Protein: MALR1 protein
Amino acid sequence: DSSSEKWDFETDLCQTFPELNLKPGWIRRNGRSGLGPPYSDHTGNDTAYFLSWTSEMGSSSATLRSHAFLPTENEHICQIEFYYWIGQINATLMVGLREHPENTIKNIWQDSGKRQNQWIANMITINSTEKYEV
Structure:
C-alpha cells in the first residue's frame, strides 16, 4: 500500500528540512515579501509560502538537506514532485542522493536555468533499499 506526504511551507518546514535554520541564505517567504520575483507560488497565490535562496545573501551556493527516508521491505520506490523557479542566468539547481552508510552525494538531477523566471514542475523517482537523504 502506497503512502504519500504533501509538504508545503505554510506553517513550518514539515520536518523535511530539519537543518534549514543552519543553512545560510535559505528563507521561507511569499510573493508579498518585497524581495522580488517570484511574486506568487506555482498556483498564482501571492500569500502562499515557498523556500527561496539568492546569491545576494553572501554565498555562491547553498545546500538544503532532507530528513532521512527509511525504505521498507515492501516499499523502496519514492517519487518526489516539486516546483522550482530559477531567476538567475548562471544558476544551477541540483538534487543529490546520499545513501547510508556511504557519505558520498550522487547528483541525480539538475537544471541550469534555461527556462528562467517561471515555475516548473518536476518529478524525481528514487529507488533505494538503503536509508537515504535528498
Summary: Residues 8-62 form one domain.
